[in-house]
Design goal:
With about 575 residues, this protein is of the alpha/beta class. It is about 35% helix and about 25% strand. It folds into 3 domains: about 240 residues, Aminohydrolase, N-terminal nucleophile (Ntn) domain (Glutamine Phosphoribosylpyrophosphate, subunit 1, domain 1, 4-Layer Sandwich); about 170 residues, Rossmann fold; about 140 residues, 3-Layer(aba) Sandwich (Rossmann fold), CATH 3.40.50.10490. A hairpin with a 5-residue loop joins strand 7 and strand 8. The longest helix has 22 residues. The structure holds fructose -6-phosphate. The site of fructose -6-phosphate has 15 residues, from helix 7 and helix 14.
């Protein structure tokens, strides 16, 4: 949520910062801006709208230090004035900020009382004015003097005209520093740094740093701090589109290798101790990751006989997990504020904790007792796809190792089902969905969470209203909405849930719904009743789950494509929700 980047080095900084912002646009895309510093001057240029729509004049500035920001509005509407960077009264100091300053209103009142003039409605602008009050030529000292006054979360980059380099500070908002050849790059995500270097330093909460072309110097609590330089194992090619129309499409098609890399890496490690001594599991997550957790609940209870609860992370504070539960926080980005808060709360109550994440060095990895990494590579599309499959991979692995190895063979060959699903022709189903105003997704057992995820994907990128239901639940109310205008996507794999699903399908068909079944391709019954039958890959539960997950993603993607939606940047959304 909001992307920030800063470059200081030997090259012209503005074009590099603009390129970096394009890489970060998935974090927010309602406005953007750049500040460029030269020996004595500071130029700021900012604009409402997407980066691709304009060619900023600030690119002509020759300074070798610049900062930039791409915004997802929290305080104040998207506008030129509210776009970052924000400056002080004299326009000599510029700040970009990711996070929220909770006490900004009272600080602003005080600053206005002391004669400061504000130009925006944002919380961030107070930082620029506070720094102004402490700035006598030493930007590091000025920023350090201001930080204790700020309540909330922040990743901040500050520059001042005539001042060398960038000052960076972090508290509960991600900030990574890339160490390149005669250049330093700071960014909210490593994806914006990979073009320059794969050597990075992850700042800790409370760190303040000066960035110069020769490298970063980091301070913590008044002392200089040593932070290790780590090598990122993501490749720059992974953050490029590489011939695909959208990142979402690219990421859907990467899922075979994502699934097998994740399970192979997990099986290669010793089983973590944290998995050996607990009486139950509470899973906490948001959005797509939460849907994966709901699936995990069915899986682990079935294969391991361990009680499992999946909790929406933002609701966790209102619940009390049973004593003795292992609390597992699942988050692709490792930065989702609600999930971080839930994990902190679990720690406060002395629960052992495990994180499942895709991002090395992310905040969740510092909080949890132990971390299991997915191997999804950078996920750029706002709609999560490959991270969902990677989360399922982690859960299949956990169910297998905690359940006595019964799933291993199926898990190790799961990627084949993904490959099969990717080859299916789903065009007739897309034709049924694209004109709909409302779509219902239904499933039973472990396929119920998949129905929820199918509906989430459909609504977020097509803007068609979609709801996921436990198939048996739909006649307890939602039936009132069914008609020939409301397609139903029914997940009906062979196995235990099949007979009850067929009954539910018949009931819905009797209400005249256009019916798409993703299910047992060998069933004559399904062929007779469905308007469109998309066969699941042959095989066991693992194959059916993976196949169904991929087919639902493809259905959402292809429907959004048919409707001409901005698939990678759906309206009102942004990747990585770092505010509660
Ligand atoms: C939906 C989507 C979101 C995320 C949610 C949690 O496509 O991407 O629902 O799943 O914001 O994100 P992470 O997993 O990064 O905590």
């Amino acid at each position: 949520m909001c992307g920030i980047i800063g470059y200081t080095g030997e090259k012209r900084a503005a074009p590099l910062v603009l390129e970096g912002l394009k890489r970060l646009e998935y974090r927010g895309y309602d406005s953007f801006g750049i500040a460029v510093v030269s020996d004595s001057d500071l130029w700021v240029w900012k604009k409402r709208g997407k980066i691709s729509q304009v060619n900023p004049p600030v690119l002509r500035r020759k300074g070798r230090t610049a900062i930039g920001h791409t915004r997802w509005a929290t305080h104040g509407e998207p506008s030129d004035a509210n776009a970052h960077p924000h400056t002080d009264c004299r326009g000599t100091i510029a700040i970009v900020h990711n996070g929220i300053i909770e006490n900004y209103a009272s600080i602003r009142r005080e600053l206005e009382g002391r004669g400061h003039t504000f130009r925006s409605e944002t919380d961030t602008e107070v930082i620029a004015h506070l720094v102004e009050e402490h700035f006598w030529g030493d930007l590091l000292s000025a920023v350090r003097a201001v930080l204790p006054q700020l309540e909330g979360s922040y990743a901040i980059l500050a520059v001042a005209g005539g001042n060398e380099g960038i000052v960076a500070a972090r508290k509960e908002s991600p900030l990574v520093i890339g160490v390149a050849d005669r250049a330093c790059i700071a960014a909210s995500d490593v994806t914006a740094i990979l073009e320059h270097t794969d050597r990075v330093v992850y700042l800790e909460d409370g760190d303040v740093a000066t960035l110069l072309p020769s490298g970063p110097t980091i301070w913590h609590g008044g002392e200089q701090a040593d932070r290790p330089v780590r090598k990122v194992d993501w490749d720059v090619a992974e953050v490029r589109l590489g011939g695909f129309a959208h990142y979402m499409q690219k990421e859907i098609y990467e899922q075979q290798s994502v699934f097998s890399s994740t399970v192979r890496a997990l099986y290669a490690e010793p089983i973590p101790d944290v998995l050996k001594d607990f009486s139950g599991i509470t899973l906490v997550a948001c959005g797509t990751s939460y849907n994966a957790c709901l699936f995990c609940q069915y899986l682990i209870e079935e294969y391991c006989g361990i009680p499992v609860r999946a909790e929406i992370a933002s609701e966790f504070r209102y619940r009390t997990p049973p004593g003795g539960d292992l609390v597992v926080a699942v988050t692709q980005s490792g930065e989702t504020a609600d999930t971080l808060s839930a994990l902190k709360q679990a720690r406060m109550h002395n629960h052992p904790t495990l994180a499942v994440t895709n991002v090395l060095g992310s905040s969740i990895t510092r909080l949890a007792d132990y971390t299991l990494f997915m191997r999804a590579g950078p996920e750029i599309s706002v709609a999560a796809t490959k991270s969902f499959i990677a989360e399922l991979a982690v859960f299949f692995y956990l169910a297998d190792v905690m359940g006595g190895g019964r799933l291993r063979k199926s898990v190790l060959s799961g990627h084949e089902a993904i490959g099969e699903a990717l080859l299916q022709d789903i065009s007739p189903a897309v034709d049924l969905c694209r004109g709909a105003q409302s779509i219902f997704f239904v499933g039973r057992g472990p396929f119920f969470p998949l129905a929820l995820e199918g509906a989430l994907k459909m609504k977020e990128i097509t803007y068609i209203h979609a709801e996921g239901y436990a198939a048996g639940e739909i006649k307890h109310g939602p039936f009132a909405l069914l008609s020939h205008k409301t397609p139903v996507i029914a997940l009906s794999p062979p196995g235990e849930t099949f007979p009850a699903m067929v009954s539910n399908i018949r009931e819905m068909k009797a209400r005249g719904v256009p019916l798409i079944v993703i299910g047992d391709g060998n069933s004559q019954e399904l062929r007779d009743i469905a308007d469109v039958l998309i066969p699941l890959p042959d095989g066991d539960m693992v194959s059916a789950v993976l196949g169904a997950a991929v087919l639902l993603q493809l259905l959402a993607y292809r429907t959004a494509e048919a409707l001409g939606r901005e698939i990678d940047q759906p309206r009102n959304l942004a990747k990585s929700v770092t505010v509660e």
